[in-house]
Amino acid sequence: xxxxxxxxxxTSVATTERIMHVAKRIQREKQNGYDIVVVVxxxxxxxDQLVDMAHExxxxxxxxxxxxxxxxxxxxxxSLLSIALHKLGIEAKSFTGWQAGIVTEHxxxxxxxxxxxxxxxxxxxxxxxVAVVAGFQGIDDEGNITTLGRGGSDTTAVAIASxxxxxxxxxYTDVDGVYTSDPRFVKGARKLKELSYDEMLELANLGAGxxxxxxxxxxxxxxxxxSVRSSYEDVEGTILKEEIEVEKDLVVRGVAxxxxxxxxxxxxxxxxxxxxxxxxxxxxxxxxxxxxxxQTIIQGTQPSVSFSVKKExxxxxxxxxxxxxxxxxxxxxxxxxxxxxxxxxxxxMVSNPGVAASMFDRLYREGIPVKxxxxxEIKVSVVVPQEDMLKAANALHEEFGLSLKxxxxx
Length: 410
Ligand code: ADP
Ligand code: ASP
Ligand code: MG
Description:
Layout: E1 3-8, H1 16-31, E2 35-40, H2 46-57, H3 63-87, E3 92-95, E4 102-104, E5 113-116, H4 119-126, E6 130-134, E7 137-139, E8 145-147, H5 153-163, E9 168-173, E10 194-196, H6 197-205, H7 213-221, E11 226-230, E12 238-241, E13 254-267, H8 275-285, E14 293-296, E15 304-310, H9 314-323, H10 325-328, E16 332-345, H11 355-365, E17 372-376, E18 379-385, H12 389-399
Helix pairs in contact: 1-3, 2-3, 5-7, 6-7, 11-12
The protein binds adenosine-5'-diphosphate (ADP), aspartic acid (ASP) and magnesium ion.
Aspartic acid binds at residues 9-10, 41-42, 47, 73, 135-136, 150-153.
């Protein structure tokens, strides 16, 4: 029998009523003849509430204990959903991440899955049961509970689909697919029928919160058919796959944005060749993710390296830099906050010159200053003041023809 992995996010399981609705949805898929694994998130805003509770007690709670705390959210949902399935007469069994054999690296709060030993889940499927697995969690090789980073249940679902050789992985959520931009904030955003893994990976990495970036990475690496669809309405969603037909006139396929970006600048007394290697090796070793990098060595000015980090990583970044000041050999550091990143993405960009120029031109006409730029074959990102983020996203969405009614996104 073919296996189907389905995943339901926080809003989709926010109340017991919604959990009952999810159980009925699973019942329909089961009647279609599939073996079913369901991955679920914590109910509604539970994870945020747990984070807030910890911060009521401490400004910097232990990451290990945060993982123990946050994984309780998903554990509530797996048991309630199993109970809901039993109520419909469907045999079902719940599994925490560790019971499902999800082994991760030893990185609290943002671990990658290293491997999955799905025997227990497989046994449940063989016995005709629906396996209900907690998203976002695993265990490292020292026996610590770990989490996969916010939004990580998507990755649990795709990784399980890969481990079980599933036919498909369907991500059910509160939107009915992937849109040209976040429909909550961008006027005229429209649903895309198909999207390539690469485009989706860029969009997700650049802030489109609809999917956890690593889930797309796993789907691409293991060629797992994946879709994003509505948990409320029975309508077609967006299909993600390797190759898609792109209309020539839709060079840009999506606009993504991400608030809370910090630009850090490290100043040196004099230029020396090892500075870039030293600083970024040190940050990487300490698990600090750095994004856009700009080095400035101009005669008459103090040599410097600027890079962007997420606001949530600022304290860790500053700490790592100050702990290694001696070997890094810098003079001083400053940083600018209240920034955001806005990006345009599309695989057609590689063969269409002038896209970045049109982007800068439109931002200039809107009076939006560009603080940093980064490009790849399929995206251009700019760092702008946070107060201009949505204005920039809406303007670029319109500039590249994504908002036009008469054009149908494919
Ligand atoms: P879940 O709890 O189901 O995991 P998320 O909140 O993580 O749901 O993701 C769904 C949300 O992603 C939508 O409500 C939407 O506001 C946001 N989103 C951001 N970018 C996009 C996009 N390009 N297309 C669709 N939704 C997007
Ligand atoms: N509950 C976790 C979060 O809110 C994981 C997830 O929903 O995917 O980030
Ligand atoms: Mg999500």
